Amino acid sequence: MSGHSKWATIKHAKGAADAKRGKMFSRLAKEIMLVAKSNGDPNTNPSLRNLIAKAKAINMPKDNIDRAIKKGTGELQADILEEITYEGYVGTVGLVVQVLTSNKNRAAAEIRNIFKKNNSELGQSGSVTRNFERKGQILLPKGDLNEDDVMMLALDAGADDVNADDEGFEILTAPAAFADVCDALNKAGIETSDAEVKLIPVATTPVTELSQAKAINKFIAALEDNEDVQNVFTTADFSDEIEAALAAEEE
Predict the structure, then answer these.
(1) Treating both helix axes as pointing N-terminal to C-terminal, what angle do 21-36 and 46-57 enclose, rounded to 10 degrees?
(2) What is the pTM of this model?
(3) Are 65 and 55 in contact (CB under 8 A)?
(4) 24 to each of 35, 95, 155, 180, how far by Cα in Å?
(5) Beta bridge partners of 200
(6) pLDDT in tens, 201-224
(7) Cα(62)–Cα(184) distance, rounded to whole angstroms?
(8) Sheet holding 82-90, edge to edge
Protein backbone atom coordinates (compact mmCIF):
# COMPACT_ATOMS: atom_id res chain seq x y z
CA MET A 1 0.00 0.00 0.00
CA SER A 2 1.54 3.28 -1.05
CA GLY A 3 0.97 6.62 0.59
CA HIS A 4 -1.78 7.47 -1.88
CA SER A 5 -5.38 8.13 -0.90
CA LYS A 6 -7.55 5.12 -0.15
CA TRP A 7 -9.08 5.19 -3.66
CA ALA A 8 -5.78 5.74 -5.49
CA THR A 9 -4.28 2.89 -3.49
CA ILE A 10 -6.93 0.49 -4.79
CA LYS A 11 -6.41 1.63 -8.38
CA HIS A 12 -2.66 1.17 -7.92
CA ALA A 13 -3.19 -2.30 -6.48
CA LYS A 14 -5.36 -3.34 -9.40
CA GLY A 15 -2.70 -2.17 -11.84
CA ALA A 16 -0.06 -4.07 -9.93
CA ALA A 17 -2.27 -7.16 -10.04
CA ASP A 18 -2.19 -7.11 -13.82
CA ALA A 19 1.62 -6.92 -13.83
CA LYS A 20 2.26 -9.41 -11.02
CA ARG A 21 -0.72 -11.69 -11.11
CA GLY A 22 1.16 -14.78 -9.94
CA LYS A 23 2.31 -13.06 -6.76
CA MET A 24 -1.19 -11.76 -6.16
CA PHE A 25 -2.56 -15.29 -6.52
CA SER A 26 -0.04 -16.58 -3.97
CA ARG A 27 -0.74 -13.75 -1.53
CA LEU A 28 -4.49 -14.16 -1.73
CA ALA A 29 -4.23 -17.94 -1.41
CA LYS A 30 -2.36 -17.49 1.89
CA GLU A 31 -4.97 -15.05 3.17
CA ILE A 32 -7.78 -17.38 2.13
CA MET A 33 -6.08 -20.27 3.94
CA LEU A 34 -5.75 -18.21 7.10
CA VAL A 35 -9.31 -16.91 7.08
CA ALA A 36 -10.80 -20.31 6.16
CA LYS A 37 -9.07 -21.94 9.12
CA SER A 38 -11.89 -20.89 11.46
CA ASN A 39 -14.74 -21.18 8.95
CA GLY A 40 -14.49 -22.37 5.34
CA ASP A 41 -18.02 -21.37 4.36
CA PRO A 42 -18.11 -18.00 2.55
CA ASN A 43 -21.85 -17.77 3.19
CA THR A 44 -21.22 -17.40 6.91
CA ASN A 45 -17.68 -15.97 6.80
CA PRO A 46 -17.75 -12.42 5.34
CA SER A 47 -13.97 -12.08 5.45
CA LEU A 48 -13.60 -15.21 3.33
CA ARG A 49 -16.35 -14.02 1.01
CA ASN A 50 -14.54 -10.71 0.49
CA LEU A 51 -11.25 -12.47 -0.24
CA ILE A 52 -12.94 -14.74 -2.78
CA ALA A 53 -14.40 -11.65 -4.47
CA LYS A 54 -10.91 -10.12 -4.64
CA ALA A 55 -9.52 -13.33 -6.08
CA LYS A 56 -12.21 -13.46 -8.76
CA ALA A 57 -11.59 -9.78 -9.60
CA ILE A 58 -8.03 -10.64 -10.69
CA ASN A 59 -9.18 -13.83 -12.47
CA MET A 60 -7.70 -16.23 -9.96
CA PRO A 61 -8.75 -19.73 -11.11
CA LYS A 62 -11.58 -21.32 -9.14
CA ASP A 63 -9.45 -24.41 -8.52
CA ASN A 64 -6.83 -22.23 -6.79
CA ILE A 65 -9.47 -20.66 -4.59
CA ASP A 66 -11.05 -23.99 -3.66
CA ARG A 67 -7.65 -25.52 -2.94
CA ALA A 68 -6.72 -22.61 -0.64
CA ILE A 69 -9.97 -23.01 1.28
CA LYS A 70 -9.44 -26.76 1.70
CA LYS A 71 -5.88 -26.16 2.91
CA GLY A 72 -7.22 -23.70 5.43
CA THR A 73 -9.89 -26.08 6.73
CA GLY A 74 -7.44 -28.98 6.84
CA GLU A 75 -9.02 -31.01 4.02
CA LEU A 76 -5.72 -30.74 2.15
CA GLN A 77 -2.22 -30.78 3.62
CA ALA A 78 -0.50 -27.40 3.81
CA ASP A 79 2.52 -25.68 5.37
CA ILE A 80 1.95 -24.10 8.76
CA LEU A 81 1.86 -20.35 8.29
CA GLU A 82 2.93 -17.86 10.94
CA GLU A 83 1.83 -14.23 11.14
CA ILE A 84 4.65 -11.81 11.98
CA THR A 85 4.68 -8.01 12.08
CA TYR A 86 7.76 -5.88 11.38
CA GLU A 87 7.93 -2.12 11.74
CA GLY A 88 10.25 0.80 11.15
CA TYR A 89 10.60 4.29 9.70
CA VAL A 90 11.67 5.78 6.40
CA GLY A 91 12.55 9.29 7.55
CA THR A 92 9.56 10.35 9.64
CA VAL A 93 7.12 8.06 7.82
CA GLY A 94 6.14 4.91 9.69
CA LEU A 95 5.87 1.50 8.01
CA VAL A 96 4.20 -1.65 9.34
CA VAL A 97 4.88 -4.86 7.41
CA GLN A 98 2.60 -7.85 7.91
CA VAL A 99 4.14 -11.19 6.96
CA LEU A 100 2.58 -14.62 6.53
CA THR A 101 5.30 -17.24 6.19
CA SER A 102 6.20 -20.89 6.58
CA ASN A 103 9.81 -19.93 7.37
CA LYS A 104 10.11 -17.11 9.91
CA ASN A 105 13.93 -17.11 9.89
CA ARG A 106 14.05 -16.58 6.12
CA ALA A 107 11.36 -13.90 6.32
CA ALA A 108 13.15 -12.01 9.12
CA ALA A 109 16.45 -11.98 7.23
CA GLU A 110 14.86 -10.84 3.97
CA ILE A 111 12.75 -8.07 5.53
CA ARG A 112 15.75 -6.80 7.51
CA ASN A 113 17.80 -6.75 4.31
CA ILE A 114 15.15 -4.74 2.44
CA PHE A 115 15.12 -2.17 5.25
CA LYS A 116 18.91 -1.87 5.16
CA LYS A 117 18.98 -1.47 1.37
CA ASN A 118 16.55 1.44 1.77
CA ASN A 119 18.67 3.14 4.45
CA SER A 120 16.44 2.11 7.32
CA GLU A 121 16.38 -0.39 10.16
CA LEU A 122 13.71 -2.46 11.83
CA GLY A 123 12.23 -0.78 14.89
CA GLN A 124 11.19 -2.25 18.20
CA SER A 125 7.80 -3.88 18.54
CA GLY A 126 5.17 -1.19 19.06
CA SER A 127 7.37 1.68 17.90
CA VAL A 128 5.22 2.23 14.81
CA THR A 129 2.06 0.17 15.40
CA ARG A 130 1.16 2.49 18.27
CA ASN A 131 0.38 5.07 15.57
CA PHE A 132 -2.25 2.79 14.00
CA GLU A 133 -5.57 1.31 15.02
CA ARG A 134 -7.10 -1.90 13.73
CA LYS A 135 -10.41 -1.25 11.98
CA GLY A 136 -12.64 -2.71 9.34
CA GLN A 137 -12.60 -0.54 6.22
CA ILE A 138 -15.23 -0.99 3.53
CA LEU A 139 -15.13 1.10 0.35
CA LEU A 140 -18.18 1.52 -1.87
CA PRO A 141 -18.10 3.08 -5.36
CA LYS A 142 -20.48 6.03 -5.47
CA GLY A 143 -22.62 4.95 -8.41
CA ASP A 144 -26.28 5.64 -7.70
CA LEU A 145 -25.97 5.13 -3.94
CA ASN A 146 -27.67 7.64 -1.68
CA GLU A 147 -25.50 8.94 1.15
CA ASP A 148 -28.30 8.93 3.73
CA ASP A 149 -29.30 5.37 2.84
CA VAL A 150 -25.71 4.10 3.04
CA MET A 151 -25.14 5.87 6.33
CA MET A 152 -28.34 4.55 7.90
CA LEU A 153 -27.71 0.98 6.73
CA ALA A 154 -24.09 0.95 7.89
CA LEU A 155 -24.66 2.60 11.26
CA ASP A 156 -27.65 0.39 12.02
CA ALA A 157 -25.46 -2.66 11.32
CA GLY A 158 -22.84 -1.44 13.79
CA ALA A 159 -20.43 0.74 11.81
CA ASP A 160 -18.50 3.45 13.66
CA ASP A 161 -18.42 6.02 10.88
CA VAL A 162 -19.27 6.66 7.23
CA ASN A 163 -17.26 9.13 5.14
CA ALA A 164 -18.29 10.30 1.69
CA ASP A 165 -16.31 11.99 -1.08
CA ASP A 166 -16.54 12.41 -4.84
CA GLU A 167 -15.48 8.83 -5.54
CA GLY A 168 -17.56 6.91 -3.03
CA PHE A 169 -18.07 5.94 0.59
CA GLU A 170 -15.69 4.74 3.27
CA ILE A 171 -17.26 2.77 6.10
CA LEU A 172 -15.19 2.21 9.25
CA THR A 173 -16.04 -0.43 11.82
CA ALA A 174 -14.64 -2.04 14.92
CA PRO A 175 -13.13 -5.43 13.94
CA ALA A 176 -15.92 -7.22 15.82
CA ALA A 177 -18.60 -5.39 13.81
CA PHE A 178 -16.98 -5.88 10.40
CA ALA A 179 -18.80 -9.10 9.55
CA ASP A 180 -22.22 -7.70 10.49
CA VAL A 181 -21.75 -4.59 8.35
CA CYS A 182 -20.52 -6.66 5.39
CA ASP A 183 -23.53 -8.93 5.74
CA ALA A 184 -25.92 -5.97 5.82
CA LEU A 185 -24.41 -4.51 2.65
CA ASN A 186 -24.46 -7.90 0.94
CA LYS A 187 -28.14 -8.45 1.78
CA ALA A 188 -28.93 -4.98 0.43
CA GLY A 189 -27.23 -5.89 -2.86
CA ILE A 190 -24.49 -3.25 -2.45
CA GLU A 191 -21.13 -4.15 -3.99
CA THR A 192 -17.86 -3.09 -2.40
CA SER A 193 -14.64 -1.89 -4.02
CA ASP A 194 -12.63 -3.25 -1.14
CA ALA A 195 -13.38 -4.62 2.32
CA GLU A 196 -10.95 -5.82 4.97
CA VAL A 197 -9.85 -5.41 8.55
CA LYS A 198 -6.62 -3.44 8.40
CA LEU A 199 -4.34 -1.03 10.20
CA ILE A 200 -5.36 2.60 9.73
CA PRO A 201 -3.05 5.43 10.87
CA VAL A 202 -4.33 7.51 13.77
CA ALA A 203 -2.26 10.42 12.44
CA THR A 204 -0.65 10.69 9.00
CA THR A 205 2.70 12.11 7.93
CA PRO A 206 2.45 14.72 5.12
CA VAL A 207 4.69 14.02 2.11
CA THR A 208 5.16 17.11 -0.08
CA GLU A 209 8.48 16.38 -1.83
CA LEU A 210 8.42 14.23 -4.97
CA SER A 211 11.83 12.71 -4.23
CA GLN A 212 10.63 11.61 -0.79
CA ALA A 213 7.44 10.13 -2.25
CA LYS A 214 9.46 8.17 -4.82
CA ALA A 215 11.78 6.82 -2.13
CA ILE A 216 8.82 5.71 -0.02
CA ASN A 217 7.11 4.00 -2.95
CA LYS A 218 10.37 2.29 -3.97
CA PHE A 219 10.76 0.99 -0.41
CA ILE A 220 7.18 -0.25 -0.25
CA ALA A 221 7.44 -1.86 -3.71
CA ALA A 222 10.53 -3.79 -2.60
CA LEU A 223 8.65 -5.04 0.46
CA GLU A 224 5.56 -5.99 -1.54
CA ASP A 225 7.72 -7.94 -3.99
CA ASN A 226 8.75 -10.28 -1.17
CA GLU A 227 6.78 -13.52 -1.31
CA ASP A 228 6.11 -13.56 2.44
CA VAL A 229 4.77 -10.00 2.71
CA GLN A 230 0.99 -9.76 2.83
CA ASN A 231 0.43 -6.08 3.63
CA VAL A 232 2.39 -2.87 4.07
CA PHE A 233 0.77 -0.03 5.99
CA THR A 234 2.18 3.48 6.15
CA THR A 235 1.51 6.82 7.79
CA ALA A 236 2.47 8.61 4.56
CA ASP A 237 -0.08 11.08 3.18
CA PHE A 238 0.84 12.34 -0.30
CA SER A 239 -0.36 15.79 -1.30
CA ASP A 240 -2.60 16.11 -4.37
CA GLU A 241 0.32 17.61 -6.29
CA ILE A 242 2.56 14.67 -5.43
CA GLU A 243 -0.13 12.17 -6.41
CA ALA A 244 -0.59 13.92 -9.75
CA ALA A 245 3.17 13.92 -10.41
CA LEU A 246 3.49 10.23 -9.57
CA ALA A 247 0.49 9.34 -11.72
CA ALA A 248 1.95 11.26 -14.64
CA GLU A 249 5.23 9.32 -14.38
CA GLU A 250 3.35 5.98 -14.31
CA GLU A 251 1.56 6.74 -17.59
Answers:
(1) 170
(2) 0.82
(3) yes
(4) 16, 21, 33, 27
(5) 133
(6) 998 999 989 999 999 999 999 999
(7) 26
(8) 82-90, 93-101, 229-234
